[in-house]
Amino acid sequence: MAFELDSFLPYRLNVVAQRISERFSKRYAAETGLTIPEWRVLAHLYRSGEVSIRDINTCINLDKSIVSRAATRLESAGLLHKSDNNADRRLIVLTLTPKGEELMYRLGKIADEFQAEMLKELGSDAKHFLDGLARLSGAQLAR
Predict the structure, then answer these.
(1) Model's pTM, two decimal places?
(2) Which CATH number fits the domain 11-115, given the four candidates 2.60.40.10, 1.10.10.10, 3.10.129.10, 3.40.50.2300?
(3) Which 8-state DSSP code applies to residue 80?
(4) Would the CA dihedral through 134, 138, 139, 140 be positive or negative?
(5) What is the pLDDT of residues 16-62, one digit of tens each?
(6) Which of 63, 78, 100, 116 is 20 to 30 A (C-alpha) from 37?
(7) Which residues are registered as beta bridge partners of 29?
């Protein structure tokens, strides 16, 4: 049997993830002008609080340079603050500003609405899909 890229699960998951990410980005970019990396950095900071660029790089699976550029743009917009890590001067620590927290509160509502729409699209398959994602990721996803 010949290899079929279109039925190769890792490929299909990647394509679907990219399409969903782009679809979601159209929602928040229209209101905020944020890029996908900027959204991911803000969302991670909103969830985790003060973290280093290296931590974000690891958690959101983006190159360190992409995270760094996004953080610089977000700092210029007044949405986050960069500082040195007292324990390790090589690390840059990021924290949301009050303006960044306010924006993430608004974006959280947009994200919740988008997720509800996606789950509605999945219909009765939603629970099985989320269970499968949890198994594939090796961790239980919040439901």
Answers:
(1) 0.83
(2) 1.10.10.10
(3) E
(4) positive
(5) 999 999 999 999 998 899 999 999 999 999 998 888 888 888 888 88
(6) 116
(7) none
